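Sequence design from tokenized structure. All designs in this work follow the same two-part layout: the structure record, then the generated sequence. An example of the structure record is given first.
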């Protein structure tokens, strides 16, 4: 199963060196902050390198942006696109995500496209129209995409009150949409994933893996989750 470790804006140089040693022999996708990408591109490693974001521009005078070609040259194989925090704090829209996905594909990397759902949408969007709307940002022609479904109110949470039936419904909806368009894909889940609920989460329909953030910063949690999904 796929396991993505989204480190977000955490850890410093010395922490990162220790972290790389921790996951060196694990088959995971690790996503550090941009400045630390080079600390993970080591010989003999089992993990793959991912970026937490990518510019919607392929090149040009966009100070502070990081282009897909630049990430590719650092050994990045996966790029996270459309995380709910990019929507909430940076006001990014579906057209931004479409451009980013295209740039990632053009540079032979794999997009991990986040499909989010707010608690309000969970309560009121029974037909999952907003889920389908987000899927429309995916370009028609691609080799392979990973979809990460994340209920936003559960991200970073330790709340074990997870509506598994609802998550199943959403993931089946996503899978059906992708199959109808003949898109090669994997679907992963994120939101409150921990060693306490990983057994139940593994039973989800269509689940091909998980993306974790808070648990990704806890050595004991990483070991337990990794062992569980690889048993």
């Amino acid at each position: 199963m796929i396991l993505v470790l989204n480190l977000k804006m955490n850890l410093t140089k010395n922490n990162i060196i220790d972290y790389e040693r921790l996951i060196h022999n694990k088959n995971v996708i690790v996503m550090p902050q941009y400045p630390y990408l080079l600390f993970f591109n080591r010989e003999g490693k089992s993990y793959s390198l991912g970026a937490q974001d990518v510019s919607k521009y392929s090149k040009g005078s966009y100070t502070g942006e990081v282009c897909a070609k630049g990430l590719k040259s650092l050994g990045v194989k996966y790029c996270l696109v459309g995380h709910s925090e990019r929507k909430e704090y940076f006001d990014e829209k579906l057209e931004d995500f479409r451009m980013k996905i295209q740039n990632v594909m053009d540079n032979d990397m794999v997009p991990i496209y986040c499909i989010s759902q707010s608690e309000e949408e969970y309560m009121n969007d029974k037909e999952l129209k907003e889920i389908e709307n987000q899927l429309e940002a995916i370009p028609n022609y691609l080799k392979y995409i990973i979809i990460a479904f994340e209920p936003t109110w559960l991200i970073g949470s330790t709340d074990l009150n997870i509506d598994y039936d609802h998550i199943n419904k959403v993931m089946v909806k996503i899978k059906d949409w992708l199959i109808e368009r003949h898109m090669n894909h994997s679907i992963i889940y994120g939101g409150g994933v921990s060693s306490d609920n990983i057994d139940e989460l593994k039973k989800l329909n269509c689940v091909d893996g998980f993306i974790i953030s808070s648990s990704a910063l806890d050595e004991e949690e990483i070991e337990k989750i990794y062992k569980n999904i690889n048993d």
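The mean pLDDT is 94. We note this feature because it recurs in several other targets discussed in the main text.
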